[in-house]
Amino acid sequence: MTFPSFTSTETEPRARGAELGARLRGAVAANLAGYNALFAAAGATDGQVRAWGERALERAAGWAPHLADEIGGIAAGAGLEPWQVAVVNARTEILAALDVAGRGECSTSVVLPGDGLPPRTVQTWDWLGHLRDAPVLWAYEARPGHGVRTFTEAGALAKIGVNTAGLGVHFNILRHGADGADPGVPVHLIARRILDEAATVEEAADLARSATVSASTVITAVTAGGAGAIEISPAGVAVVPPGPGGVLLHCNHFLDPALAEGERLGAEEPGTYARLRHLRDHAAELGGEDVTGRALAMLSHAPGGAPVCAHPDPALPLGERWETLATIGLDVTAGRLLVHQGGPCQVTGTTWQVF
Known about the structure:
Elements: E1 5-7, H1 13-23, H2 25-41, H3 46-63, H4 65-78, H5 82-89, H6 91-97, E2 107-111, E3 120-128, E4 135-143, E5 146-153, E6 160-163, E7 168-174, H7 187-197, H8 201-209, E8 216-223, E9 226-233, E10 236-240, E11 247-250, H9 257-260, H10 265-268, H11 271-281, H12 283-286, H13 291-297, E12 322-331, E13 336-341, E14 353-354
């Protein structure tokens, strides 16, 4: 099984968005409907969702006008209003406004082996089962000679990805006591600008610091020469460097000591700490050359605990049916993604989609 993919031919932001929106019209509408169902289950009214979408679009336009234009283009191509596509891009901010926590989420591993060898990375992408058809692989040129490939959701401008400058990003959600109800710059747009503009961890961190946010996330930036987990929250931005052996692991709680004082998700759902312990216990395998071996090192179902490889419980409410929808490695040297549809327990050497 593979995810749908699309390569843009347009380079002007609004035209590029319109091309994508027209090609993925049904997928964008379905993704929006899935989020509207999630927000409604969490108690949001249609009016609240629209107000949040409009506010997120306003904040996006103030920080990166060209990205707001691209959102408008996607809306035009998909037959939607710009605020509706902004809702998809601001889903993290809307969930923060609704104070929605999650028992499952993503786990990321980056190992820098040194001696001129390329970084070894892998992450699980956990999300809700009713949104399993949302992902799409998208390739485009941010500017002449600067290509980007991203694993994202239909209508969202970016998520996990690589660029031809040799930089890649992984993506995990966080929650902080400073998260607020007034949407700031969507964190997915921060990932997009990093992919579009950055070639180093330092440049990526500077872009993150330039945005006023209302929700928290960690964008782990990696290049051939370094890596850093860029923890982003309304309380500030911190960069967590690799530890001994070039190992940099992240789940869904803050690692920076100052930001960790405001930790929310781990305090409510401590399974994130168990997932990080699993990664630490398998750091040697996670540094292996073969992406299949790295993915299998992630394998932990931990019944009743904190699985790295999650499977949904259909008896739970809509917003609690967590599932590992993708397993992803970055090849920053070749500027490509290695994507498996599903969790590590289903990975074999032949299930990777190279994009």
